Amino acid sequence: MQEKSYFEVGQFLFLNEKYDQAIIEFKKALEKNPKSAEVLYSLGIVYEAKNMPEQAKEFFRAALELDPKHKLAEKHLSKLTGT
Description:
The chain is about 80% helix and about 0% strand. It has helices at about 5-15, 20-30, 35-50, 55-65, 70-80. The chain is globular. The model has no long low-confidence stretch (mean pLDDT about 95).
């Protein structure tokens, strides 16, 4: 499967609150394209939804490293760090 397909399946699973399965699909997408800020951001969102802020922050930071203008990653990271 292609990165986009894994990403789309991950989004579907996330929207259906199947967080652990979404993480698996997003990580498969990341294997196909390790430089995808959007996939990293999505992993951050899933970990945030699972109330795992440390993991979420790591993924938001990684997304911002690849795309410093990723406004949503910046917004969520700011919310989690209180800055």
